[in-house]
Amino acid sequence: MVAAGKLSVVVVMVIVIATISNSVSVDPDMLQDVCVADLNNAVKMNGFACKPNFSASDFFFAGLTKPQPTNNTMGSHVTLANVMLIPGLNTLGVSIARIDYAPGGIRTPHTHPRATEIFFVLYGELDVGFITTAEVLVPMTLNQGEVFIFPKGLVHFQINNGKEPAAAIAVFNSQNPGVQDIPPTLFTAMPPVPNSVLSKAFQISYKEVDAIRSKLA
């Protein structure tokens, strides 16, 4: 009976470990060497169906080699390389992005609902931070070659407070991490979030809500 009891404990521990292992995996594990996304297939699963034939080009992307224009309102540009641009990422559970910042450029507060982000500074200096669910700001100033982690789902930001351009590489543990930029999510959603909600939430007038909407439109 003692041996049986010990065996039961071992079985329970194995089940718990297996459950935890599955729960921390962001994207489902692959069951074959490759599953290149068939982006034209009408069948959409949790990911994409595999296309029957593939080539090296399905695993290649040259879009991160050069800085992109940052002459926009926020002074930044994100070049995302996810499964939509690299079909070979399908089922592999990773993606990557390059972010370019003009002096004073900002990556506004946003979240990635499906991925943790590893953030690596290519050059320049960036002030970054994330906010916990307890509303604690975790800030850091990063320089070339330094790394910072933005935990999955938490609001985070980056800003170039320096006088020179900056750039960074972000790596995600999902083939399609998703992104929700907080300001446009709230003020440019369609149909619109009611003025009464935004006015009450931010303690501003309806006129101020409309002014913010017009600036972000």
From TrEMBL:
Residue pairs linked by disulfide bridges in the UniProt entry: 35-50
Residues given in the record as Mn(2+) binding sites: 110, 112, 117, 156
- The residues the entry assigns to the signal sequence are 1-23
The GO terms this record gives for MF are: manganese ion binding; superoxide dismutase activity
Per the record's keyword annotation, is tRNA processing included, yes or no?
A: no
Pfam families in the cross-refs: Cupin_1
Set out the biological process GO terms recorded for this chain's protein: plasmodesmata-mediated intercellular transport; regulation of root development
Q: Where are the transmembrane segments?
A: none
Q: What is its main location?
A: secreted
List the catalytic activities from the record.
Answer: 2 superoxide + 2 H(+) = H2O2 + O2
UniProt KW keywords: Apoplast, Disulfide bond, Manganese, Metal-binding, Secreted, Signal
Amino acids binding oxalate: 112, 117
**Listed InterPro entries:** Cupin_1, Germin, Germin_Mn-BS, RmlC-like_jellyroll, RmlC_Cupin_sf
Gene Ontology cellular component annotations, sorted alphabetically: apoplast; plasmodesma
Which residues does the UniProt record annotate as the domain Cupin type-1? 62-210
Under the heading Gene3D superfamilies, the entry gives: Jelly Rolls
Where found in the cell? Secreted, Extracellular space, Apoplast
Q: How would you summarize the oligomeric state and partners of this protein?
A: Monomer. In the absence of manganese, it forms tetrameric and pentameric forms which show superoxide dismutase activity.
Per the record, the similarity remark reads: Belongs to the germin family.
Report the protein's function.
May interact with bacterial adhesins thereby protecting the reproductive tissues from microbial attack. Has no oxalate oxidase activity.
Q: What name does the UniProt record give this protein?
A: Germin-like protein
